């Protein structure tokens, strides 16, 4: 009679920093026949990488339940880590067997980067009508993750020589540019490169794009380290946190030396013209001298 189902789900498990994740807890109104008191209590504690939005709502058979609900253990805004929800199911016996649905959300923060977030919930309910101190507890969990791309920048054929000062932007599969707001800890995407977040490699040749969902991304170098050539090709990188690879390293090498301006401008064209002229002028001079000898 008191077999009480309980399940927790999330609308996404591969997430970006700053993304709002929506959770659903589902159960059924239990049959409390024979009980003088009955405990039906749900607790959820957020992991460090999730900031609770304090927006718990309870529905019975699709209808918002505003009475018979007690919400507690909701900390201050600067420590929003979870809740305890008690539902007075003794008052709902005309709805025995109907769906209980609890909805709420949390925002992914920087503590979630490259760490699998295990978000735990549990249902505590009475299991003995003769002893109100006896309970059964059903646990459930949802695992979330967000990944990062690390750049390892070094000199071509000399991986020990790390290069500082290289600048990169990142594009997603829709050719949008990565934007990160450190104040709000939020990842977003812009249509124009001018709005993109530019990251720069440090003295260890390292820089990172954080808070990424699974997907294929394109890395573009927009400034080379001093004394090195700018990369002409972009680099495709696959993030697959579902395979537990939450940190992806992109190894990027640069060649030293100068490069002539690319074709299409006046750069190399000038050199070609000068070279041809240097060959033609002597040839014309020789022809003229021969013609003069013939005429004389």
* Gross geometry: elongated
Main beta sheet strand tally, sense and closure: 6 strands, antiparallel
Strand content: 35-45%
The rounded Rg comes to: 33 Å
Return the structural class: mainly beta
Distance between the termini: 127 Å
Number of helices: 1
Extended strand count: 21
pLDDT under 50 segments (min length 5)?
A: 259-274
Helical content band: under 10%
Mean pLDDT: 87
Name the helix and strand elements from N-terminus to C-terminus, one letter apiece.
Answer: EEEEEEEEEEEEEEEEEEEEEH
Question: Can you describe this structure in just a few lines?
Answer:
The chain is mainly β. It has one helix at 267-295, and strands at residues 6-10, 20-28, 40-45, 50-52, 57-60, 63-64, 69-72, 82-87, 99-108, 117-126, 135-144, 147-155, 158-162, 167-171, 177-181, 186-190, 199-200, 206-212, 215-223, 235-239, 247-254. It is elongated, with a radius of gyration of 33 Å.
Give an account of the 3D structure.
- Helix content is 10%, strand content 44%.
- The chain has 296 residues and is mainly beta.
- The termini are far apart.
Fill in the keyword field for this structure.
mainly beta, six-stranded antiparallel β-sheet, 21 strands, elongated
Chain-wise SSE layout:
Elements: E1 6-10, E2 20-28, E3 40-45, E4 50-52, E5 57-60, E6 63-64, E7 69-72, E8 82-87, E9 99-108, E10 117-126, E11 135-144, E12 147-155, E13 158-162, E14 167-171, E15 177-181, E16 186-190, E17 199-200, E18 206-212, E19 215-223, E20 235-239, E21 247-254, H1 267-295
Parallel strand pairs: 12-21
Antiparallel strand pairs: 1-2, 2-9, 3-8, 3-10, 4-9, 5-6, 5-9, 7-8, 10-11, 12-13, 12-18, 14-17, 14-19, 15-16, 19-20
């Amino acid at each position: 009679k008191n077999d009480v189902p309980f399940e927790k789900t999330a609308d996404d498990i591969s997430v970006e920093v700053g993304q709002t994740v929506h959770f659903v807890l589902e159960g059924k109104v239990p049959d409390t026949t024979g009980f003088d008191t009955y405990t039906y209590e749900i607790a959820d504690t957020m992991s460090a990488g999730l900031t609770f939005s304090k927006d718990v709502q309870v529905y019975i058979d699709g209808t918002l339940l505003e009475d018979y609900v007690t919400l507690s253990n909701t900390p201050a805004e600067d420590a929003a880590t979870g809740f305890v929800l008690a539902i007075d199911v003794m008052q709902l016996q005309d709805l025995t067997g109907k769906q209980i649905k609890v909805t709420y959300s949390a925002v992914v923060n920087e503590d979630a980067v490259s760490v699998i977030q295990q978000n735990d919930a549990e249902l505590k309910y009475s299991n003995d009508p003769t002893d109100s101190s006896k309970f059964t507890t059903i646990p459930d969990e949802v695992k979330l993750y967000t990944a990062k791309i690390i750049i390892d920048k070094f000199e071509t054929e000399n991986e020990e020589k790390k290069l500082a000062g290289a600048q990169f932007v990142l594009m997603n599969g829709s050719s949008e540019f990565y934007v990160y707001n450190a104040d709000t800890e939020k990842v977003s995407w812009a249509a124009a490169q001018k709005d993109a977040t530019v990251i720069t490699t440090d003295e260890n040749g390292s820089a990172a794009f954080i808070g990424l969902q699974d997907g294929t991304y394109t890395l573009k170098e927009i400034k080379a380290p001093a004394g090195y050539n700018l990369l002409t090709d972009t680099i495709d990188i696959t993030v697959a946190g579902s395979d537990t690879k939450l940190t992806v390293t992109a190894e990027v090498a640069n060649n030293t030396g100068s490069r002539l301006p690319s074709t299409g401008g006046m750069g190399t064209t000038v050199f070609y013209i000068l070279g041809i002229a240097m060959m033609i002028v002597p040839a014309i001079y020789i022809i003229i001298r021969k013609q003069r000898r013939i005429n004389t």
